[in-house]
């Protein structure tokens, strides 16, 4: 759960780099996804890794959509893949 909270926090930091008018949508989107998966089986490490990969890839897609440099997601990448 701690790792999931760190992923969520990093996603919210990335939302701050988006254009002001799009921030509320993506902040709400991130929260809804976090809430939807809160009852996820934390003992299933493979499934959790897939969720973190999806979160990272989606974050890159959003950053690219708004022409934000992907390097902004380095910390998220580190949290998702290196604990």
Automatic annotation (TrEMBL):
Q: Show where the Complex 1 LYR protein domain sits.
A: 3-56
Quote the Pfam families the UniProt record gives.
Complex1_LYR (PF05347)
Please name the InterPro entries in this protein's record.
Complex1_LYR_dom, Complex1_LYR_LYRM9
Name the family the entry cites: Belongs to the complex I LYR family. LYRM9 subfamily.
Protein name, as recorded:
Complex 1 LYR protein domain-containing protein
Q: State the organism named in the record.
A: Hibiscus sabdariffa
Q: What are the top taxonomic ranks of the organism?
A: Eukaryota, Viridiplantae, Streptophyta, Embryophyta, Tracheophyta
């Amino acid at each position: 759960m701690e790792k999931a909270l760190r992923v969520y926090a990093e996603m919210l930091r990335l939302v701050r780099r988006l254009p002001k008018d799009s921030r509320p949508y993506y902040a709400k989107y991130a929260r809804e996804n976090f809430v939807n998966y809160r009852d996820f089986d934390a003992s299933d490490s493979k499934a959790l890794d897939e969720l973190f990969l999806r979160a990272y890839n989606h974050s890159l897609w959003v950053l690219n959509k708004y022409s934000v440099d992907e390097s902004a997601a380095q910390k998220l990448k580190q949290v998702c893949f290196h604990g």
